[in-house]
Design a protein that fits this description.
single chain; 126 residues; mainly alpha
Length: 126
């Protein structure tokens, strides 16, 4: 329960920074969270191929709560969605996390379903 609370606070803080438009502080907090909670750097995580990223996500390294928090963080990082390769790659990684949460952990939320549908619309998939 403590892990869920901690990750919820991190997501709330990141969301507040994003809404406030403090991009520099958001990026700094995003990077700090990845380093301390996921033992990786943003550049390394974002540079992973889809296959390598999926392998990392499917490993038993992270709990479903941390995976869900990672999906939320990556989704926020991608906003506002631009029509470019970096955003596309990032949203594909969010979808990988959602798929692993559903298939491996049998974990699904209405928020994730809504975000999945938004990503489908972004890619013009129905």
């Amino acid at each position: 329960m403590d892990e869920i609370r901690k990750m919820a606070l991190v997501i709330a803080k990141l969301m507040g920074l994003k809404v406030a438009g403090d991009e520099r502080e958001f990026i700094q907090e995003f990077n700090n969270t990845l380093l301390h909670e996921f033992d990786t750097e943003a550049e390394v995580l974002l540079a992973l191929s889809e296959e390598d990223f999926e392998g990392l996500i499917k490993s038993d390294k992270y709990s479903k709560e941390k995976l869900n928090a990672l999906a939320q963080m990556l989704y926020m990082f991608a906003e506002p969605f631009q029509q470019d390769e970096a955003t596309q790659a990032l949203l594909k990684k969010v979808m990988i996390v959602f798929n692993v949460l559903e298939e491996k952990h049998h974990y699904q939320t209405f928020e994730n379903i809504t975000k999945r549908n938004t990503i489908y619309k972004y890619f013009n998939i129905s």
